[in-house]
Amino acid sequence: MRGQGPPQCPLxxxxxxxxxxxxxxxxxxxxxFRRWEGVLRDGLRSMHERDELAPSADPDDLALAMLTVPQxxxxxxxxxxxxxxxxxLLDAIIARITSASTGTAASSLGRHPTPxxx
Length: 118
Description:
The protein is an all-alpha fold. The chain is built from five helices and no strands.
């Protein structure tokens, strides 16, 4: 695997462990994810209002995807002991947001550097 140990989202890992056994802890983890989603949603809504996202782009759906997609990539990277699944999913979400972007917003979103290129 590239890097040091399997990548993992601490909040996602905690949520996975507690989702079925501790409703209070699950609610706290869910609230954390909602806060992250809210920050992403607010930023994407601001971009939408500034016409930096296409009129057809849904900032709420994009925010949810930006939060959800890396969770799957992190899980697969952990299982496979390789960052390729995470890199591929991040590239896909960046491409999706870029395709929904207009003008200068699209040019500032590019492919993320791979660990070997850093």
